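Internal QA ticket QA-208
Title: Verify multi-chain structure generation after dependency bump
Assignee: T.L.

Test input:
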Amino acid sequence: QMQLVESGGGVVQPGKSLRLSCTASGFSFNNFVVHWLRQAPGKGLEWVAVMSYDGDSKFYGDSVKGRFSVSRETSNNTLFLQMNSLTTEDTAVYFCAKSGGVGPNFFDTWGQGTLVTVSS
Amino acid sequence: EIQMTQSPSTLSASVGDRVTITCRASQSISSWLAWYQQKPGKAPKLLIYKASKLESGVPSRFSGSQSGTEFTLTINSLHPDDFATFYCQHYNSYPLTFGGGTKVEI
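Actual output:
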């Protein structure tokens, strides 16, 4: 059974950094693409970032471009989201989700999410 | 960036009702549209992809359709378990964007 588990969330001060992890089981990052998305409290869904199937390309949402970076450790089936220069507007539940295919796609498997709170 | 305009934002309905939610794309996205259901405190669940294809395991009372850049999610005979928030999402190109959501309430 395909499963995704996020970790690394917590409370962080504005301007600081945090790294989230997403570990997959039941499938390999060598064969599937996993994205990061987020949802601010009481708000809708926002796509954040993705790394391409071959790891050569990375795409980011406008609101995080230049501050967030995505990387992966295929040996451990883990995807990371490095978040720098955090602001209160980055407060959200962060989900990782498996893509339905290569390239821009829908999300057919989601993790349970990890809460990031940016507050002084 | 492709904008997805979803309506209504809130919908009051009763068990057994037929419910329709609409999502309009700001430009052509072919049929690259998905629908999700989300319950409070939970991750979204994929219902429909490629505008009208039902995800495996999703009840057949859910259906999707398309007319140009306007997409519709229909729930025939609303069940008690269907009260939730629904989102559309395009996947024509990056950045991927979602509609603002429709909360279906009693």
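Spot checks passed. The mean pLDDT of chain A is 94.
Status: verified.
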